[in-house]
Amino acid sequence: MGPSTRRSGARLALTMALLLVAALGVNRLLRGPVPAEPPAEGAAPPSPRPAEPPSVPASERGYVRRLKVIEPPNPGEPPRAVRDAAVVEAETAVEPAPQAGGAAQPRLARSLLTGNAPDSSLSLVSGPENPGPSRPGPGDGGRAKPGRGADGKRPPASSGADMAALSSASSEASRLVARARGRLANAAASGANPLSPEAVATALREQIALDRKSETMVRDALSGLGSGASPEDQQAAVAKALGASGRPADPESVTEALAEASQPPRPAPSPAAVADAIAQVSTNLPDAKRLDELSRLAMKPPPRPNAPPPKGGVSAYVTYRDAFDRVEKDFGLRPDQVVPFPAIETSLGANTGKFPLRDTLLAINTDVGGRFKPAQRAQAGRDLAAMTRLLASGDLGGRRVEQLYGSNMGAIGITQFLPSSWAAYGLSFSGGPRDPWNFRDAVLSTGNYLEKHGSRKDYDRAILSYNYSEKYRQDIKQYGANVAPGIRAVQEQAAGK
User: Fold this and answer.
1) DSSP assignment, residue 405?
2) 141, part of any domain
3) Is 420 domain-assigned?
């Protein structure tokens, strides 16, 4: 057989081989993936293939909370990562649990439904976290906006090596999340309560203790600087103290801690008052159906109440002139710069919200329906702890938990403060307990918030810190311009001009 014949035979064999491979590929495609054979009885399950971490939007990179590890593992065991169905798309990877004796912090800002039954407990233990996003302002309705670290820079993104090391645990978490989805769906359908009163009470006690420790560390850090310290030095000291105590040190948290530390220390509530507040918050918990309903409502905010006509704002100034005059004296804000806030937020107190505060914060924090961003869930957890402390100290007007109603995102009172913001910026006109539903207290506290956010230098920027919306800023400015002539006429008449 000559060379040409051998070459023709080789080409024919190669062509047949390629046709055979193509035919096998088409057959495999038509039949679909071959199911994996079940492991033999008693054999260990196969190791999951590492999965690529979900992509993170550039706007949130560096601020996405890591997947929670519920508890430190026993020596020699891998981390047990469990999260609820809501966290899958929003978070990036699994952080290994802290080693024994590590810096794990109780964190009400983290909420995960775990276990094998619909009545699983609320687990709230977390390790060190990246700086969180900037906190929302009082009028922001709980909407967090991207922020930067205490140094004004974005935290570095995780390296490729870090992500690769975490991908195996992320794959394992995905398996557990699939099971969690089914449990949560069953709980919502049956109305079972996914929250454990004991776990919620324990988490509240731990978070309150952590907040007190943090406040003490912040005051100690500021007292160590002396009275001549620059604002930059104060901010740096507070950021360091917050980080050392396990709390976020983003710019808004630093501003909030500075505002709280600038007030004289308030008497601590008695242990009995704290225990009673915790009992109020952790008993008669809403079931899964109610949590899901509230979370749906939170995602569909009702329209903002119509602001009253300018004469209504002028009438409010006349009625509460003593409070507006004190704001101008203490915080340098004219009445026409403050009147718009209660007018636009709640129509001068006529519509302060109809949603039960405790249940709304729990719905956002537990996120049974998987609707909220990590920052929103974290904020709701902080507000839940702040609400409990305010109940204990009487700084919610002496109300009990079942009497507390607010917005669909947990803002309360005449100028719609979140509970954590009210704890930091709330003031009492009379010098007694604070009440966000008291007009004078609300006006004074709003002035305090705006001044702490730079209103003396840049009023427009302070408005945006209250509610990060250009339309909101324009509405505030326009309403202020509309009421200014009437307020000046009242002032001139009082002065005898």
Assistant:
1) E
2) no
3) yes
Structure letter (DSSP) for residue 417: B
User: Which residue in 112, 146, 25, 148 sits closest to 381, CA to CA?
Assistant: 112
Domain that holds residue 375: 287-494
248-287: pLDDT as tens digits: 888 889 999 999 998 888 888 999 999 999 999 999 999 9
Q: Does the predicted model carry a pTM greater than 0.85?
A: no
Residue 110: name the closest of 136, 137, 81 by CA: 81
* Number of domains, the chain: 1
Confirm if 50 and 171 have CB atoms less than 8 A apart: yes
Give the per-residue SS3 of 55-101: CCCCCCCCCCCCECECCCCCCCCCCCECCCHHHCCCCCCECCCCCCC
Distant-in-sequence, close-in-space partners of 196: CB < 8 Å, separation ≥ 6: 119, 120, 121, 122
Tokens 């570095």 map to which residue?
156
Q: For residue range 122-153, what is the model confidence (pLDDT) as tens digits?
A: 333 222 333 333 455 676 554 433 333 333 33
Residue 325 lies in a domain: yes
In this structure, is residue 77 part of a structural domain? Answer: no
